[in-house]
Design a protein that fits this description.
By secondary structure, this protein is α/β, with parallel strands linked by helices. The protein has 9 helices and 8 strands.
């Protein structure tokens, strides 16, 4: 029971949630039991926090202790980001790491053969074909980079975008051209969603397989599996509209709305956690048994009760 005497909200499965909510220039608090964003003019916008995977706070947003506590109870990742999501400053865990999952993830990374099998599986999922044999992880990283650059050029031609190369400065958002700003905003959305899923499933964002040495290496690994199928096409589509003067809303907002629709259309929220498990199982190492006192999953997905036509 919570301190107020009301049972804390039970997190609903990630696959049944909305993907992302961005908040800027507002104060977030809990009023009358509801999670709300309050504007300067006193108006309130209710946010169904238990049905959101990731809450992204931009500059100008303030959040109260009660709101952070409620988001944690509801299993919603809270992230503090820069303008348009170009930088990620901090993130609050929605579920918490599981010792059995962490040991499995670490064992896979520390075993060179298992790690290579995982990277091969990532390559297969990402490009729809087996990875070249007898290649090191560094060589596979170079092959993937070349394919991604070629994909950028292809999407740019499809949408009539003037494209040179991926080039942006995280410290100076306005110095980037429109396509690069669109790509940065789009990948920020996907990275937030991927980190929410990784943390909810009990894994560590820093323990990556293809990407290494960064606090969110595994986030980049998992996000890259979906990037070319979700946010990259939308980023170039919006960039083409922006360059042709066809947008009546800010470019970054158009990108976010497009990413939200893409996540819904592809069913990403229902697939991303099983996708993580699929990738790691390719390492062919046994999953450690959780200790009896281990914390359960952050998002229980219990089987529905009743017959097919019944909703409880």
């Amino acid at each position: 029971m919570s301190l107020s005497g009301v049972a804390p909200p039970k997190p609903i499965p990630l696959k049944e949630r909305a993907s992302l909510v961005f908040v800027e220039r507002a104060k977030i608090d809990v009023k009358d039991g509801s999670f709300v964003a309050m504007n300067a003019d006193g108006t309130r916008v209710h946010i169904p926090i238990g049905g959101v995977a990731c809450l992204m706070l931009e500059p100008g947003a303030r959040i109260s202790h009660r709101a952070v506590s409620l988001a944690a109870q509801a299993g919603t990742l809270v992230t503090w980001i820069g303008e348009a999501g170009v930088r990620l400053y901090a993130a609050g865990q929605p579920g918490g790491a599981r010792s059995d999952k962490l040991m499995w993830q670490a064992a896979l990374v520390l075993d060179p053969a298992a790690r290579l099998r995982v990277v091969h599986e990532m390559f297969r999922i990402r490009f729809g074909e087996p990875a070249p044999q007898k290649r090191s992880i560094e060589q596979l990283r170079g092959i993937e980079g070349a394919r991604v650059r070629a994909s950028y050029k292809l999407f740019a031609r499809q949408h009539g975008v003037q494209w040179t190369r991926r080039n942006y400065d995280p410290t100076n958002w306005d110095c980037s051209d429109i396509p690069n700003r669109c790509l940065s905003a789009a990948t920020a959305c996907l990275h937030g969603l991927a980190e929410a899923a990784i943390l909810a499933a009990g894994y560590a964002p820093a323990i990556g397989f293809l990407h290494t040495g960064k606090p969110r290496s595994f986030v980049y690994d998992i996000a890259d599996l979906w990037k070319l199928r979700t946010v990259v096409p939308e980023a170039f589509r919006v960039a083409g509209q922006a360059q042709n003067g066809e947008l009546n809303i800010p470019t970054e907002r158009a990108v976010r709305l497009a990413c939200r629709d893409s996540f819904r259309k592809t069913g990403l929220l229902s697939k991303i956690i099983p996708n993580i498990e699929e990738v790691l199982k390719a390492g062919n190492l046994p999953v450690p048994e959780p200790p009896p006192e281990a914390q359960g999953p952050a998002f229980e997905d219990n089987p529905a009760s009743g017959d097919v036509g019944h909703r409880s």
